[in-house]
Amino acid sequence: MIDLYVYYKVRAGDADTLAPRVRALQAELEARHGVQGQLKRRPEARDGVQTWMEVYPAVDAQFGAQLEDAVGRAGFNALLAGPRHSEIFVDLIP
After folding, report:
1. What residues does 86 pair with on adjacent strands?
2. What is the average per-residue pLDDT within 24-34?
3. Order of strands across the sheet with 2-11?
4. Distance between CA atoms of 27 and 5, rounded to whole angstroms?
5. What is the pTM of this model?
6. Among 40, 84, 85, 90, which is 20 to 30 Å from 71 by CA?
7. CA-to-CA distance for 51 and 66, rounded, in angstroms?
8. Which pLDDT score is estimated for 75?
């Protein structure tokens, strides 16, 4: 299992439009794949742009492709101020 972190920039003026779309996407992912996503953002904005992060803990390696398919269907990339970036983390084994 992996933890998937996806971060991206959002213009502050688009935040109120984008937030419900991301939450709807995460509700769909939970219903279809049983994955509970989290939505976070940095507390400060720079030059009118916020940094947001979606967190998907304990998912399988194929989930990233499923997420990107769902994002494509949701069609909210036009509200982003740049590309989405994904990072994968795994637990340290003691």
Report:
1. 6
2. 94
3. 38-41, 49-59, 2-11, 85-89
4. 17
5. 0.91
6. 90
7. 23
8. 85
CA distance 3 to 37: 10
Q: Determine the topology of domain 2-86 in CATH.
A: Alpha-Beta Plaits (3.30.70)
Q: Residue 3: which pLDDT band, with cuts at 50, 70 and 90?
A: very high
- For the chain, the residue count is 94
Residues 81 and 21: their CA atoms lie apart, in Å, by: 16
Q: Burial, 59: exposed, middle or buried (Cβ in 10 Å; 0-12, 13-18, 19+)? A: buried
Those residues with Cβ within 8 angstroms of residue 44's Cβ, 6 or more apart along the chain or in another chain: none
Q: Residue ranges per domain, the chain?
A: 2-86
